[in-house]
Design brief:
single chain; mainly alpha
Amino acid sequence: MQVTVSTSPHLKSNIKTAIIMRQVMIALIPVVIAAVVFFKYRAIWLMLNCVLSAVISEKIILRIRAKSTSTKDGSAALSGLLLALILPPSIEWYAATLGSVFAIVVAKQLFGGLGSNIFNPALIGRAFLMAAYPKMLTTFVEPFAVDTVSGATPLALQKFSHITTSSVKLFWGNVPGSLGETCAIAIIIGGVYLLIKKIADWRIPLSLLVTTTCITIVFHWYKPQSGSILFHFLSGGLLLGAFFMATDPVTTPVTKSGRYIFGVGCGILMMIIRYFSGLPEGMMYSILFMNSLTPLINRYTRPKRFGT
């Protein structure tokens, strides 16, 4: 009898990896269009830079590792695109390139490649850049600005200056912020597409948004200047993270109950960072922290074997 040892998942489906990656990229089209409209050539160059750097890095590392796997599945391109969408439009080209290389080589290939990585590669790339170039990662530009006109994000204005940005601006995206996090309507359209196509499981976004709502209600009642539910929904990386980062099938729990736990944990950690830390945003760190707990969540939420 021959025993085959392989990495998870062990339950297979007819949906190929390339199809999933293609569907996620289709869902990101509204976000990409909004980014180009608001930030023009900066958006185009940043996305091209990150995508090409990620694909080339994966191709090189696969050749070094003598792996037969190709880059045609689109996972490297998607990681590069997601990284570009969570970076400031004004970031220098070499920093964006370095972040893409780090995301692919360290966060993905060092763990064994697609399906074996513990953390979301795009978020790890941004976390690395946040440590290496903190000033660059916290400098944002105004939409439609021809020259580099710096502007504070809505979350930073609310946290440090107690100035609340109007919901209309947040909804349409006419605010400073990361490349793909400003236009809420574009993210919602893409997220709904993922849910309809069943590429993303609705349990994580739902539990994350419900948790955020409950915490915001309590804090808004106690301290009105902390921001309303709508403000926290539409600002920062909440929506992009809920639909496109927290639903990553590789780095999130496989059980239904585990996905609820994952979403609740992300919501709690994100709001703790927004309210009590020195940072205005916490979506990235909350997802990465919950990524580290995914094996533990899977272990304690797996269903009992039949007959036990």
